[in-house]
Specification:
This protein has 2 helices and no strands. The relative contact order is 0.18. The radius of gyration is 12 Å and the shape is globular. The chain starts with a helix and ends in an 8-residue tail after the last helix. The chain is mostly helical and 52 residues long.
């Protein structure tokens, strides 16, 4: 949780430590999960493009 930059940084730390698989669970009311998923895809994933 946090700003997109914070989330990407934390995930990159896991990657640097050797983690290759992460299960994401978006919390809150079910109707909000789609919005959270889209926000993650639009705001966090672009910050992690170097992993490709």
């Amino acid at each position: 949780m946090g700003r997109p930059q914070d989330v990407a940084e934390r995930l990159l730390e896991f990657h640097a430590a050797g983690v290759r698989h992460i299960i994401m669970d978006f919390v809150g009311p079910y109707e909000d999960r789609d919005r959270q998923f889209v926000r993650f895809a639009e705001e966090v994933l672009p910050l992690m493009q170097d992993l490709r």
